[in-house]
From TrEMBL:
The keyword Transmembrane helix applies. One of its GO terms (molecular function) is ABC-type transporter activity. It comes from Ramlibacter tataouinensis. The chain crosses the membrane at residues 23-44, 56-75, 131-153, 159-179, 244-267. Residues 340-573 form the ABC transporter domain. InterPro entries: AAA+_ATPase, ABC1_TM_dom, ABC1_TM_sf, ABC_transporter-like_ATP-bd, ABC_transporter-like_CS, P-loop_NTPase, Type_1_exporter. SMART domains: AAA. This is ABC transporter ATP-binding protein. It is found in: Cell membrane. It comes from the Bacteria.
């Protein structure tokens, strides 16, 4: 609750002055509205019962009542729409904050995060916060103000009777507390289940090919239906608490209260003092005020159901916002040449489970280094550290003499390019996919595409660089996607280019294109390529062989092949054998 309130207050802070103004005018409106029954009471007591027909005075009274009502309605309408506008602006800020925050979270967060659930937080949960603002808080606020106005007017008329009516407030508090206790677990569970639904949809769409190929669609439908059913049941539980507790109980209280007030009046008249003219007016005013008190109370309690949901949503958003962002390095050093020095690098993702053990490696500026090794030997981990996706121990990685964590973020990302294993393409044109939002001329985009040997095939597409590539680049072959990813990395004119198994999914012909592209960059850009396919890095200046997180061998292809029984030699021969088998399956013995 406190967290959610803090989140809302922070988001509303820039509009504080407007909010205070809005509240002031709402108070004025409530005051004017509270005048209605008072005017009616004056009319009954002064003119109706004594049968005084003072027309000008009556006209003034009626006109005053009409005017007060109209001004109050106008003020309320104006202020509520204005406050709703401010509320939506606050939610807009929250959503932008959450998205921006997610973009700055360290990669270790995404090891744990589930995409669909995360999307649910950025969209559904912030939507719930909007509900909190727009519907709940303002309806509640308005109701509280109207309630306070009516209470004050009643106190002025007859404070003892007012106290009877005021018993409604603690009664309502008890009901709401009971409701909260009963429904809170269901509300939290509903939101969790909703985010699970999102997660499953996102996951299934992402892996549709595998899902259909492994004939898992039925099973997935079944799983989805089970979560959906649980969601329905959880919602039912919420609604039941709502249906039983809120409105009916309050309606009952309303009737009881009216009966009590009328009973007290009858007691007074039976007590010898006949019901005076004054009391009839007061009775009328009280009956109107009771209706005015009950309605906001009903509104407030009804809103509690929504409030509950919104608070849970806000707490989830708040928890996400509390995740620590990647620390931003003070921009001290710069990448100038692109020389990398790794010294005594130890690293593990989890305490007590070391993945890299005391690596020492110098990569000269402009050189081409290949990194190979068995699955799980730590290649991707090394790359993640070089890319600052995870923090390396202080001083263990330096670029051009500067510790890697001391280089300013923007400069670092400009100077370092990455071609990932799975090319990530946007549902946009080839040009947009290469430029990635950077301000680039056509010539710069073409130049990068030429360097990546992607220009020719892009020109062959229907609309050249303007051809939409479909979601995830669905209209391209894997090799073509990879060439676009290389062009994108080169377009930033990096000093260092990292390739993470960029050739493992492409055919030999495209691989040769990639090899030519890499050769063309020799001497200009430092290249570090993890390669499963050894032919990609055959021409590298140096190949580093990792084994269980340690450097086992290093040297050129020729040098490593010369180590009899060496790890590289064995990997290479094994791969050659596999390739030969793949090329000649028909020669298999019958
Ligand atoms: N995000 C992570 N959290 C925890 N442990 C991890 C994480 N990523 C990798 N590991 C562990 O670190 C070790 C090295 O993994 P890494 O991915 O670096 O190997 P790799 O040589 O790149 O393997 P591959 O060729 O299969 O990609 C493995 O034991 C792996 O289980």
């Amino acid at each position: 609750m406190g967290d959610a309130a803090a989140l809302l207050l922070r988001a509303a802070a820039p509009d504080r002055a407007h909010l205070v103004q809005g509240l002031f005018w709402l108070l004025v409106a409530a005051g004017l509205e509270a005048l209605g029954p008072l005017i009616a009471k004056t009319f009954i007591d002064t003119f109706l019962l004594p049968r005084r027909a003072d027309l000008p005075e009556i006209a003034v009274l009626l006109l005053g009542s009409l005017l007060a009502g109209m001004v109050a309605s106008w003020l309320r309408y104006r202020q509520l729409t204005r406050l709703a506008g401010l509320a939506m602006r606050s939610v807009q800020r929250i959503r932008e904050n959450v998205y921006g925050h997610v973009l700055r979270l360290p990669m270790s967060f995404f090891d744990r995060a589930i995409t669909g659930q995360l999307v649910s937080r950025v969209t559904n949960d912030t939507e719930a916060v909007k509900m909190l603002y727009v519907q709940v808080l303002f309806v509640m606020l308005d109701s509280v103000i109207v309630l306070a106005g009516a209470m004050l007017a009643m106190m002025w008329l007859d404070w003892r009777l007012m106290l009877i009516v005021a018993t409604l407030v603690p009664a309502m508090t008890v009901i709401v507390a009971l409701y909260q206790r009963l429904s809170a677990p269901a509300v939290t569970r509903t939101r969790e289940l909703r985010s699970e639904l999102n997660a499953q949809v996102a996951e299934s769409i992402g892996g549709m090919g595998v899902l259909q190929a492994s004939n898992a669609t039925e099973r997935f439908s079944g799983r989805f239906a089970a979560i959906n059913e649980a969601h329905y049941r959880s919602r039912q539980r919420e609604l039941r608490a709502n249906a039983w507790l809120l409105r009916p109980v309050l309606d009952l209280l309303n009737v009881l209260l009216l009966a009590t007030v009328i009973f007290v009046f009858s007691l007074r008249s039976e007590g010898g003092v006949g019901m005076t003219a004054l009391e009839v007016g007061v009775l009328y005013a009280f009956i109107s005020y009771i209706a005015r008190v009950v309605e906001p109370l009903i509104q407030i309690t009804m809103q509690f159901a929504q409030l509950q949901q919104a608070m849970v949503g806000a707490a989830r958003v708040h928890a996400l916002l509390k995740e620590a962002e990647t620390p931003v390095a003070p921009p001290r050093g710069r990448v100038t040449e692109g020389a990398i020095a790794i010294e005594h690098l130890d690293f593990g993702y989890l305490p007590g489970r070391q993945v890299l053990h005391g690596l020492d490696l110098r990569i000269a500026a402009g050189s081409f280094h290949g990194i190979v090794g068995h699955t799980g030997s730590g290649k991707s981990t090394l790359l993640s550290l070089l890319l600052r996706f995870y923090p390396a121990p202080a001083g263990s990685i330096r670029i051009d003499g500067t510790p890697v964590d001391a280089i300013g973020e923007d400069h670092f990302r400009e100077a370092v390019g990455l071609v990932p294993q799975e090319p990530f393409l946007l549902a946009a044109s080839a040009r947009e996919n290469i430029a990635m939002g950077r301000a680039m001329t056509d010539e710069q985009v073409h130049e990068a595409a030429r360097a990546a040997h992607a220009h020719d095939f892009i020109m062959g597409l229907e609309h050249g660089y303007d051809t939409p590539l479909g979601e995830g680049g669905a209209r391209l072959s894997v090799g073509q996607k990879q060439l676009i990813a290389i062009a994108r990395a080169l377009a930033g004119k990096p000093r260092i280019l990292f390739l993470d198994e960029a050739t493992s999914h492409i055919d030999s012909e495209t691989e040769q294109v990639v090899q030519r592209a890499l050769s063309g960059l020799r001497g200009q850009v430092t290249i570090v390529a993890i390669a499963h396919r050894l032919s990609t890095i055959r021409e590298a200046d140096r190949i580093v062989v990792l084994n269980h997180g340690r450097i086992a061998e290093r040297g050129t292809h020729g040098e490593l092949m010369a180590i009899e029984g060496g790890l590289y030699q064995r990997l290479y021969l094994l791969q050659q054998l596999e390739e030969e088998e793949e090329e000649a399956p028909e020669e298999a013995p019958e």
